[in-house]
Amino acid sequence: MSRVIKEKGDFKLLRPFNSWDTNYHLVDTKNDLDHLIDIGDVYEESEVEDKEDFGGLLWEELKELEDIEYIMEFVWKTVEW
Known about the structure:
Elements: E1 4-8, E2 11-14, E3 23-28, E4 33-38, E5 42-43, E6 57-58, H1 59-64, H2 68-72, E7 77-80
Parallel strand pairs: 5-6
Antiparallel strand pairs: 1-2, 2-3, 3-4, 4-7
């Protein structure tokens, strides 16, 4: 199974690297940075009761990499790649 979920422009979204990794990896290939997003901060749309007041990150938004600036708000740590 490939670790790459989506590639868009200078970014790659990767699955957690192993069973104890609890992060999605948003890799900025231009700047060699790995932005970590905790899997616990990503929700399926079906898990959200009040969609109008929801301020979290939906899986559907993350996996398409449509709004990188918004996704970056959920990064808890950045490391050099």
